[in-house]
Amino acid sequence: MKLLCVLVLLALGRPAAGSIEGMKRLYKHMFGNYSTKIRPLYNQSKHVDVHSRFNLVAITKIDQVRQIFHSNVWMNLTWQDEFLTWKPEDYSGIKSIHPPLTDIWRPKLIIPVSLEDRDVFKDETSSITVYSDGTVTWFPGANFATDCKLDLTLFPFDVQTCQFRFLPSSYESNELKMVSSLIYANTQSYTENGEWSLSGSRAYSIERTFVDSTFSFLHVDIHLERRPMFFVLNVIIPVVVLSFLNIFVFSLPCDCGEKVSYAITCLLALTVFMSIVSGLLPKSSDNIPMVTMYLTCLLCISVLSVVATILIVMKDHAKATKTDQLSPLFVIPRFCSLSFPGSRRKVMDQVQLDSKTGGSAGNGNPTDQVREGWSSPGGYCVTADSLCMVTFTALWIVVSLGFLVQITK
């Protein structure tokens, strides 16, 4: 019984020992005279085809102020190494090996538009596999920080395209060519981003000539669409509501004491929101966002409403004290005292009885006489307020509809 167990263990141990010996012989045979400085071709006049597959894992961040695209990417690179071929039956049935990255030739790829280290695949921990027919597969990965020119004209309803460009360093197109295995970026392991949605992608290879040298590039275009709901709910809707409330300053009576302060409060609120928006946008004049122009127009309307409110209050005060001719420092527009159909209001003129003339008999104006177009002390100029309210409402509607039309084009 003991002899049988020993024979079984020996039988099981021989393939393992043979496999280890086969692996040692294979590495010695393959890498004995192997050089990582020579392209893996017996005919050096040919070019190496590097088939690539771009795998987008996640969009880490898009810095739209600095216009930087941060992403997590894995690449699947495949090529033929004519120096690393063997027959599996000669080496204990071994069909693939995993040599160290430093022991094998690899295409050194750089990203010309990278804002950090251009050699993005210098990590020595990525896996590489060599098969018996000479096929080599390499899975490098990195966190990229690339330049991405953003067109924020339709912010926050914009659609952007960020591009990756991979260039094999030190090799021209007649020595190495990049070939895209897919016509799009692989997003099977993609993690959704809360601010941006991935609307599409495109992968292709192209050759470009610089001076007298032609290089093969791998281009990957990533099409992104912004999720605008956060910005709409937190900025645009509050701004629209505040600008609409600003118009109702002309419905307040002058004697309430809050007419001017109400208009200035709305102006300050719009200024705060405009500063928030400017902090989210790049400091560039290449393309002015429509939302910035819209906020500027609303800010101008608010400023004009404050000026009109001050003039109305001054005119009302001049009428109340009958010192219209004693205000030479300000030019009060004439329309403040004009009357318009449908906007006139009859105000009872409370006349103080003169003790010497006996009341209304002295001046011929009874206490219930109606005077039109002038307000009594403590009243307000209805004509000017009505005109301003209609004018600013029409102006607000035109500006808001224009912004909506431009955004939805």
Label the CATH architecture of the largest domain. Distorted Sandwich
Low-confidence stretches: 1-18, 324-382
- One letter per element, helices H and strands E, the order comes to HEEEEEEEEEEEHHHEHEH
Distance between the termini: 88 Å
Tell me, what's the shape? Answer: rod-shaped
Count of domain modules = 2
The CATH topology name of the largest domain reads: Acetylcholine Binding Protein, Chain: A
- What would CATH call the homologous superfamily of the largest domain? Neurotransmitter-gated ion-channel ligand-binding domain
**The first-level CATH class name of the largest domain:** Mainly Beta
Written description of the protein model:
The chain has 409 residues and is α+β, with helices and mostly antiparallel strands. It folds into two domains: 40-227, Acetylcholine Binding Protein, Chain: A, CATH 2.70.170.10; 230-407. The chain is built from six helices and 13 strands. The strands form three sheets. Strands 1, 2, 3, 5, 6, 7 and 9 form a seven-stranded mixed β-sheet that branches. The protein has a four-stranded antiparallel β-sheet with strand order 4-8-11-10, with no helix packed on it. Strands 12-13 form a two-stranded antiparallel sheet. A hairpin with a 4-residue loop joins β1 (48-63) and β2 (68-80). The radius of gyration is 40 Å and the shape is rod-shaped. It starts with a helix and ends with a helix.
